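Weekly structure sync, notes
Attendees: PL (lead), two postdocs, one rotation student
Agenda item 3: pending single-chain targets
PL asked that the sequence for the first pending target be pasted directly into the notes so everyone works from the same version. It is reproduced below exactly as submitted, 517 residues in total.
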Amino acid sequence: MENKIYPIGIQNFEKIRKDGYFYIDKTALIYQLVKTGSYYFLSRPRRFGKSLLLSTLEAYFQGKKELFDGLAMEKLEKDWIKYPILHLDLNAEKYTAPEALDQVLESALRGWEALYGAQDYERTFASRFQGIIQRACDKTGQRVVVLVDEYDKPMLQAIGNDELQKSYRETLKAFYGALKSKDGCIKFGMLTGVTKFGKVSVFSDLNNLDDISMRNQYIDICGINEQELHDNLEDELHSLASAQGMTYDEICAKLQEYYDGYHFTHNSIGMYNPFSLLNTFKYNEFGSYWFETGTPTYLVELLKKHHYDLRRMAHEETTATVLNSIDSTSDNPIPVIYQSGYLTIKGYDQRFGIYRLGFPNREVEEGFINFLLPFYANTNAVESQFEIQKFVREVESGDYDSFFRRLQSFFADTPYELVRDLELHYQNVLFIVFKLVGFYVKAEYHTSAGRIDLLLQTDKFIYVMEFKLDGTAEEALLQINEKHYAQPFENDDRKLFKIGVNFSAEMRNIEKWIVEK
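Predicted structure, written out during the meeting:
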């Protein structure tokens, strides 16, 4: 078996092909794309292959036939015409001030003007861009190809700063407007990004863009599907199974659990995250590869700002209209979280046009919930992982008092701004803790007005818990008995604990717990 060189972090198609990196052939889809339309938009999560897609398009439109040897494109394309290409990459900069975007656009425009010339009367970014498109077309005798990578990066980084976002939006709206005004000089245009900002956005003038983000025929233009995994990495699957001490079927199931599960429309095949998948094959080791390359702080700030009930996240329902665009004035954090790749489509109600969302896989779910903990509870990012381990060990050893004392420490020093919605805060913290504990022991979590009931099971113990808000621990325990919550376990050999817990709004913490064995 030849050792594959995995193109981790490499987004340049020419480098991948010339240096012998592993490549899954997407060129038949790319051929279909360029032959059936002119202007496209594609939204995908970060590190899903968007930059490589644009780099492949660039090589194709440069007429570099030799790079496509052995690929589907080699047989499909007959002409191999070279077109002038304007490739704008907004990914490299950190956008924290208005001038950051100006500098990126200025640098790109100067590079293109060095090739195609400039005019003194072109003073604005938009007029200079229009002039460049016109002159590139005139000078080469071919229409222009415009490729924009991460078109939305400035606006994503400005979420929460309305003034800065407005500044970026107005600059980009005028800049991208050149695509419409110079339509006759453009052969092909494609914009990619993580999100689609709708309504009063950069897109309002670009009504000729074909958004293929939820189109079934282009679902696998980025990422790796199940068939591609087995067609291209079958030997590596066996090697990984051997390295992990697992069977072939077990390793396939674990890869699915950890990295598969992205659905970008209803009734579509699931897609693997390519970054995590290839890292796993490279190192023969499972890890949170994708999650660790980006910290979704802005998403957590959105959730907190809009007092989002975290329990909804695992079964959120929404419409295509909401999923497809982010209105910067909206108070709904779900579209950004979905488009960023932390939620995906899990089901669809055709009658009402309602999508059901959930976490795509174990890597994202565990990573995201772990990441949330320090933002909601009294712990830091370094300690939180160890705290969860201690929770799990305490549950597994029957040490419920230590468990609840640790839980009390999580509520200590509850920030004042969370006090006004204390019930939601206490439910969110409990949800995070028990969700994380649930990755290691069996956990069931149910809520209704003012109360939470919880079931934890280990190989030795069963815990039936009832949480009250501003009631009493005695009432909570009484409810467990009156409602017969423990009845299904009466003939179970494991030791059963019934625990009534009361959370006091005045103390902003767990006030008391009592246990019946």
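Discussion points:
- The longest helix spans residues 162-181.
- Residues 103 and 313 are 38 Å apart (CA to CA).
Action: rotation student to compare against the earlier draft before next sync.
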